[in-house]
Specification:
By secondary structure, this protein is α/β, with parallel strands linked by helices. 28% of the residues lie in helices and 23% in strands.
Length: 310
Amino acid sequence: MPIRLSCRSAALTPSLADSVSSVTASMRIALATYGAREFAALHATCVAAGHEPVAYVYCRSMKPRGKVDAREAAAVGRVLEAVPAGMDLLLPGTAEGLADALGGYRLDLLVVYGFNWKLPTSVLRVPRAGVINVHSSLLPKYRGPAPVLWAIRNGDPEIGLTVHRMDEQFDTGPILAQRGGIPLAEDVTPQALWDRVSPVLDEVLTVALDKVERGFPGIPQGDAGASYAGFVEPEFSVVDWSRTAAQVHNQVRMFAFMGPEHAPVAEVGGQWLKVLRTRLDPADGIRVECADGPIWIVESIPAEPPAIHR
């Protein structure tokens, strides 16, 4: 069962199939996302569209029944400090417990943005108008948990946002709203990207809420151009100089976006380094030859060799 910082009771709500026509202009909405600023943004958009957020859901572990580590515990504290007075915050331990907890809120809709868990049918059936998800790609491209990381890794110049109805699969449900054109800077950071994403988030979610209110089912996704953006494989944390310079540069950029503690390691001149920043054009730093030409390491720190090289 989830940790619950307040309680309410009400009857379980009917399924989407029985109730789309009964959604009113003011929907009761629960919000599930990954940080205080994201809760605030979703909340503001819902209120501006005339709807009522009634509960927040925060994922306290990477997987259901997972252990809460110190980092997540600190994140929960930050979210709790930002929760509006009187708002319930649910910290589910299991997906089944989440379904039971949400059942008491008489929800019209659950809005998800960056939730770690795959939601089972038991959760999808709770809100009267279903569950919608905000995904950081132009679906069907980059379905899965790490679309932004793969966009940086592949050297994409921009990303997009898609709001779609959630089904039992990963990011395959019908599309409600979609917009691209969000640039990825050379030295992209989470805060700088958020500054560009947040107004687009407001725009596409507003459109999606209107369509849900009117009972629009969404446009089915095709499989043309579909790809999967899974978690980064562990071996990718080691730089392979037989790759092209652009591939290595984007590898470093991707890990830099995650944070300096995640920087990949590389062997250079018989020494191991954590590579923090690189450049494709000549720059002050260490020049290294890649498969198709040089790259310059402009910021690095000493590192231990990975286990496979010890």
